[in-house]
TrEMBL record:
<dbReference type="GO" id="GO:0080043">
    <property type="term" value="F:quercetin 3-O-glucosyltransferase activity"/>
</dbReference>
<keyword id="KW-0808">Transferase</keyword>
<dbReference type="GO" id="GO:0080044">
    <property type="term" value="F:quercetin 7-O-glucosyltransferase activity"/>
</dbReference>
<dbReference type="Pfam" id="PF00201">
    <property type="entry name" value="UDPGT"/>
</dbReference>
<dbReference type="InterPro" id="IPR002213">
    <property type="entry name" value="UDP_glucos_trans"/>
</dbReference>
<comment type="similarity">
    <text>Belongs to the UDP-glycosyltransferase family.</text>
</comment>
<protein>
    <submittedName>
        <fullName>Uncharacterized protein</fullName>
    </submittedName>
</protein>
Length: 890
């Protein structure tokens, strides 16, 4: 047969890269050729890209090859024009697929709001206020706090994100044969997938390194590309902690957590006296030093600038995950079987935590104090007590997490309910023309991880994948995986020499304008080299990729890298067919609560933050999300892949059933999932430099004793919140591993000086989160609840403490706490500037790390979802089958 060649395009954002690159790895291992593409500048930042047969790398210019210009992100997106990958594919007569790296629920919300067929409120305008609650079939109502934040008019990203999401959704609706891959598994978001069924959505998650999932690739222990430098000390620290005793705190790779929020998290951790591992991003060595100086941990915890989240979540010491509830984190937490405490910051994180808390029951949401939007320490302590304690609620959450972990594992097994991403080509791959996927991602760690994991998965399945990000972003990618069939490329976003000082909305416009032309050029070049592209897979903010695909007559698929629940919220708000409140305008207040069928009601604190008008990102994010949803509605054959698994988000997937959504997650390295690729131990590309010390430290800790703390690769946690987290960890007297991002050596030293941990914890600038989550010492994960972290925590069977910062994180922790019962949300003290106070964090730590009924229940839930995640990626599992069906559809 002729080998498939996939170009997988991602922004160079860690949360985009992880699932996207994992998809590229999976496809390469399945026999495809994959070229992972990001921007020229982003590509420069990628570290340790995986080396896998069939996996190649390339970059395309986004117009900023020397670095992102200081421009509005909306303008950047216009310049790069990412949803346009589908347009490029149509123009050159190639199939394309949208890889959804948020949840199916978030995508269902986008579809609801942006769909023309459903008359979504954002389907034709961005200038409208949403009415709340938003109702999706079989979901709790979604309030304005439950939907992706950029869907709200007051969100700073709404102005460009609403058009982008509209473009994504309507591209799919206009496509007669839409293909949407989503980094979830069927059993996780069945209801959301059902809602999205008509847009050809295919769940292919969890897009998580194989070593943590099916075990088929034991070397696949990381996503394979970090944008941040990982600490190397936390593993040994985690090893020294008792099983399930550690609170892992991480707020993702994008959101910047307020200092006040950091302080509340810290104090909650210290007062809870639970060991914790906290990831506090820093790109400067001075910041790392400062972290150590500021946080006097007295041995109770460990702060790291970055880590392998999968390693941490799968470490036996992790008891819960305090997360921003980005979809990657939410899904990883689910796969790891780690309960979540959601502290959502922006985007789909609010939707994710809503699902975590209210639907899956795999965690709790840390409630925000309206003043300043800070989750106070008392609320975080409450959440910690629930997830780390032995109360009935904590026990139920642990049971739920275990259930979804098992379902995630089942989803990727051979013979499970759905075909894994592995065979995102045909079931009878030997007789099929090889696909060539271009998988496009922003150079953001949370985008790269699931996107690159998808590229890896497709490559392993026999396809050719080209992972694409921006030129400048591509430069930042480290250690890109080397896999047969996986290749890399970059396209210019107009800022190839580095990020220009520009409004992000303006950047998105520039990205669309510049990127669409450069993507077409790349596709022409690949064809000229004898590797014609057969499908374009794009993630959030690249809605225009669908337009490009249509223009050149290629199929495209939208890879949703948030939860299906967040996507269901987007669909609810933006769908034209559903008369979504944002379907035709961005200038409208969403009415709360939002109701989705069979879901708890979604308040304004539960939905992705950018869906709210007062969110700084709403101005561009609402239009972007409208574009995504309405692209799908306009596509006669939409394809939406989502990084979840069926059993985790059945209700959300059901809502999204009409837009052809396909759960293909967890998009996690194979070593942590199905085990088919034991060398696939990372997503394969870090934007940050990892520490190398944490593994030995984790090894020294008792099983389940360590609190892993990481707030992702984007959000910057307030110093006050860091302090609250630190103090909660110190007072809880639990060992902790804390990722505090830093890329500069001075910042790393500063962290060491500021946080006098006295052996109680370890702070690292970055880590392999999958390694950490799967480490036996990890007892819980204090996380921002980005979807990657949420999903990784689930796959690792690690309970989550959610401290959502932005985006879909609030939704993720809602799902963790209220739906899956795999974690708890650390509630924000509104009067304290939106900080989660130490007392609240301690409460959460006590729940997840203690032996109370609630903590036990959460651990049971985490184990359940961990097992379900594993099942979903087995041969015959739902994600496995969905990926096959998606490939057959091409």
């Amino acid at each position: 047969m002729k080998q498939h060649h996939f170009v997988i395009i991602s922004l160079t954002a860690q949360g985009h890269i992880n699932p996207t690159l994992q998809l590229a790895k999976n496809l390469s291992r399945a026999g495809a050729r994959c070229t992972f593409v990001t921007t020229v500048n982003g590509f420069r930042k990628l570290n340790n890209l995986p080396s896998i047969d069939g996996l190649f790398y390339a970059s395309i210019s986004d117009g900023n090859d020397d670095g992102a210009a200081k421009m509005d992100f909306g303008d950047y997106l216009k310049q790069l024009k990412r949803a346009w990958v589908a347009e490029v594919a149509r123009e050159i007569n190639l199939p394309s697929a949208f890889l959804v790296i948020q949840s199916a629920t978030a995508f269902a919300i986008y579809h609801h709001l942006f769909s023309i067929n459903n008359n979504g409120v954002y389907s034709s305008t961005s200038e409208i206020e949403l009415s709340f609650p938003i109702k999706l079939p079989e979901f709790p109502l979604f309030s304005r706090d439950d939907i992706p934040s950029f869907l709200l008019q007051n969100d700073p990203y709404s102005s460009f994100m609403i058009p982008v999401m509209r473009e994504h959704i309507q591209n799919l609706e206009h496509d007669p044969n839409p293909r949407v891959l989503i980094n979830i598994f069927d059993k996780l978001e069945e209801k959301s997938l059902k809602i999205l069924d008509k847009i050809g959505i295919c769940s292919i998650g969890p897009l998580i390194p194989s070593a943590f999932l099916d075990g088929n690739e034991l070397e696949d222990k990381s996503f394979g590309c970090d944008l941040f430098e990982k600490s190397e000390t936390y593993c040994q620290w985690l090893d020294s902690k008792p099983e399930g005793s550690v609170v892992y705190v991480a707020f993702g790779s994008v959101a910047m957590v307020k200092e006040e929020q950091k302080e509340e998290v810290l104090q909650s951790l210290m007062e809870s006296e639970m060991p914790f591992l906290w990831v506090i991003r820093s790109s400067k060595e001075d910041d790392k030093k400062k972290n150590d100086e500021i946080y006097g941990l007295n041995g109770k915890g460990m702060i790291v600038p970055w880590c392998s989240q999968m390693e941490v979540l799968f470490h036996k010491s992790i008891g819960c995950f305090v997360s921003h509830c980005g979809w990657n984190s939410t899904l990883e937490s689910t796969v790891a079987g780690v309960p979540l405490i959601g502290v959502p910051q922006l985007s789909d994180q609010m939707t994710n935590i809503k699902m975590v808390e209210e639907v899956w029951g795999t965690g709790v949401r840390a409630r925000v104090e309206e003043e300043g939007g800070i989750v106070k320490r008392e609320e975080l302590k409450r959440c910690l007590e629930v997830l780390m304690g032995d109360g009935e609620k904590g026990n139920e959450i642990r049971r739920n997490v275990k259930k979804y972990r098992d379902l995630a594992m089942e989803a990727v097994k051979v013979g499970g309910l759905r075909p894994t991403i592995a065979v995102f080509v045909f079931s009878n791959i030997s007789q099929m023309k090889q696909h060539h996927f271009v998988i496009i991602s922003l150079p953001i760690q949370g985008h790269i991880n699931p996107t690159l994991q998808l590229a890896k998965n497709l490559s392993r399945a026999g396809a050719r994948c080209t992972f694409v990000t921006t030129v400048n972003g591509f430069r930042k990618l480290n250690d890109l995986p080397s896999i047969d069939g996986l290749f890399y490329a970059s396209i210019s976003d107009g800022n190839d020499d580095g990020a220009a000082k520009m409004d992000f909305g303006d950047y998105l416009k520039q990205l669309k304008r510049v990127g669409s032309e450069n993507l077409k050029k790349l596709i022409d070049e690949l064809a000229g080299d004898g590797h014609p592209v057969t499908c374009l897979v794009y993630t959030f903010l690249w809605a225009w990729v669908a337009e490009v695909a249509r223009e050149i007559n290629l199929p495209s698929a939208f890879l949703v890298i948030q939860s299906a629940t967040a996507f269901a919220i987007y669909h609810h708000l933006f769908s034209i067919n559903n008369n979504g409140v944002y379907s035709s305008t961005s200038e409208v207040e969403v009415a709360f609560p939002i109701k989705l069928p069979e879901f708890p009601l979604f308040s304004r604190d539960d939905i992705p933050s950018f869906l709210l008008q007062n969110d700084p990102y709403s101005s561009f994010m609402i239009p972007v999300m409208r574009e995504h949803i309405q692209n799908l509605e306009h596509d006669p054959n939409p394809r939406v892949l989502i990084n979840t698994f069926d059993k985790l988000e059945e209700k959300s997937l059901k809502i999204l059933d009409k837009i052809g959504i396909c759960s293909i997650g967890p998009l996690i390295p194979s070593a942590f999932l199905d085990g088919n690729e034991l060398e696939d131990k990372s997503f394969g590309c870090d934007l940050f430099e990892k520490s190398e010390t944490y593994c030995q430290w984790l090894d020294s800790k008792p099983e389940g004793s360590v609190v892993y703390v990481a707030f992702g690769s984007v959000a910057m946690v307030k110093e006050e919140q860091k302090e609250e987290v630190l103090q909660s960890l110190m007072e809880s007297e639990m060992p902790f591993l804390w990722v505090i991002r830093s890329s500069k050596e001075d910042d790393k030293k500063k962290n060491d000086e500021i946080y006098g941990l006295n052996g109680k914890g370890m702070i690292v600038p970055w880590c392999s989160q999958m390694e950490v989550l799967f480490h036996k010492s990890i007892g819980c994960f204090v996380s921002h609840c980005g979807w990657n972290s949420t999903l990784e925590s689930t796959v690792a069977g690690v309970p989550l403490i959610g401290v959502p910062q932005l985006a879909d994180q609030t939704m993720n922790i809602k799902m963790v706490e209220e739906v899956w019962g795999t974690g708890v949300r650390a509630r924000v003290e509104e009067e304290e500037g939106g900080i989660v106070k130490r007392e609240e964090l301690k409460r959460c730590l006590e729940v997840l790390m203690g032996d109370g009924e609630k903590g036990n229940e959460i651990r049971r839930n985490v184990k359940k979802y961990r097992d379900l995640a594993m099942e979903s990626v087995k041969v015959g599992g739902s994600s496995h089958n969905n990926l096959n069906e998606f490939l057959e559809s091409l």
